[in-house]
Amino acid sequence: MTDITPDQEQIRAYFIAERGYWRPWTQAILRHNPLFLKGYAAYAGYPARHGPLSTRMIELIYIALDSSATHLYPAGLRTHMDFARQCGVTAADVFDVLHIVAGQGLSHVYDAVRILAEESGVDAGHVMSEAQRSRVLRHFSEVPAFMEQIAQLDPGYLDVLLDFLEEGGSRLATSDAGLTPAERVLIEVALAACFTGFNETMLRIRIRSALQMNISQAELLQAIQLTAHLSIHGTALGANTFEEHIECQTKEHKHSDPA
Fold it and tell me: Domain Carboxymuconolactone decarboxylase-like, which positions (predicted)?
């Protein structure tokens, strides 16, 4: 970089050490508000550096957050996909994450079905078959009321929903086993906790499942903390747009000057 002070250069080095990358938006913030960039590096770097989760797990969570339909941030996804591959994340791991992401929209179907059942007077009866109940328990570690309500309102939908959520033996034979159940539930906790797709119902269910699996409070807290600084992507958009605006103004000013 040119035209920066020694203090700004120190902040740049600190940011790279904390976050592992440097982008045009970080350069723009360094130029115009370096102390903010330093503060962000410390704030975002803390949950990535402190806590029991492995670097591999952290990158898997970032992949889920950036690829989520509630966010869709390609630049961050590419960055964390690269970091994840450096940590040994496999294709099966990545596509397990993307499978979880594809099911995220169901969280709001569950909430809407519950409301529909309540408002239309559907009794909370037990109509699931034992086979359906066993499948629901494998996915949720409990039988949520909304699954009973789906079974009453549309049992065929319950079956295809469970087919979709399960692996179904569709993965090609490989030594690459993909995510463990504990890793899956940590990603599900992060997606349910994130401000872009927050869902209290699913967050509570996933936390209960995690605790039953002996996942620690510290692991869950770290997964939750990692979701907050996703909002920096709005700052990145604003910083890049501001720089483009300044560049356009500069060009217009040069063209308007007499030769």
Answer: 34-104
